[in-house]
Structures are given as C-alpha cells and as structure tokens.
Design brief:
- This protein is an alpha+beta fold.
- It has a single domain (about 5-140), classed as CBS-domain.
- It contains 5 helices and 5 strands, in the order H-E-H-E-E-H-H-E-E-H.
- The strands form 2 sheets. A 3-stranded mixed sheet has the order 1-2-3. A two-stranded antiparallel sheet has the order 4-5.
- Strand 2 (about 35-40) and strand 3 form a beta hairpin.
- The radius of gyration is 18 Å and the shape is elongated.
- The two termini are about 30 Å apart.
- The structure holds adenosine monophosphate.
- The site of adenosine monophosphate (AMP) has 14 residues, from strand 3, helix 3 and strand 4.
Amino acid sequence: MTVRAILDGKGHDVLTVTPDLLLRDAARLLAEHRIGAVVVTDADRRVVGILSERDVVRVVGTDGPGRLDEPVSAIMTRKVVTCDEAQTVPQLMENMTSGRFRHVPVVRDGRLIGIISIGDVVKERLAEMERESHAMREYIMST
Ligand code: AMP
C-alpha cells in the first residue's frame, strides 16, 4: 500500500497557512477544523514549515499566551520531512516513529499535494489486517 492509495481514498485537501499568520489565528484554525497541524507554504505552494498543536502548546505552556501575538514563522518547524506518492505505508510509519511526529506532507515536483496523518496510517493498517484475516478465513474454509 502506498501514499497514493491513501490519498485516493481521503482526497488531496490540506489546510495551509502563510508564515506571517498570527499564532492565535493559526490556533483558531486548528480548533475549528479539528486537526493537529497546518502546513506552512509560500506563494508557489512549496512547503516552508509545519505548525502542530504541540508547538502551540509548548510555547504557551512555557512562556504564556502573549506568544500568540507572534507569527507562525517564529515557532514553526522549518526542516519538514515530506514524502512522495510512491512511498509505502511501512516506510511512512518508520519515518513517523523515528522522527516522533504525526503528520507528513506529500509533495509532487516540489509542491504540496496532500497530507498523511498518523490516523490515516492506522486506518489503512487496520483495513489491511482485516483484508488479510478475511483472506485467511476464506482459505481455511475452502480446504
Ligand atoms: P506532531 O506529532 O505532528 O503534532 O508534531 C510534533 C512535532 O514535530 C512538532 O514540533 C511539529 O512541528 C513537528 N513535525 C510535525 N510533522 C513534521 C514533519 N513531517 N517533519 C518534521 N517535523 C514535523
């Protein structure tokens, strides 16, 4: 199973923000859309960073809500691990586990075309396990 197959199922929508958006507005977007991260892009839809709920909680928890008046660029992660559509789900899981993050933007020709979250990966793995166990049951019953 590949990233392409997951995107075919869930679609290519990604919530993006610009680096100059205020953190309080980015936090509102995360809450309104019930998501854990937004991808930060430039005018050409190139990935320049990622901002997760964890980043917001870390700075507010450490320094207080005054930091919410800063732009996203002040705290976003700039070195973003991305993937392409051909990447397999086990490779993706390995990257998420070793990097300790739950979101991976998908790029094609350097431009953002989707995002995979840990929830998408778990959903896909569960479906795959269900297919395997169904095939196993069919096999056993046919012998
Ligand atoms: P998450 O688990 O995705 O909420 O993010 C945990 C931390 O990793 C936060 O500091 C994020 O900014 C960062 N992060 C999230 N996704 C990525 C990614 N694909 N590449 C690099 N860092 C990331």
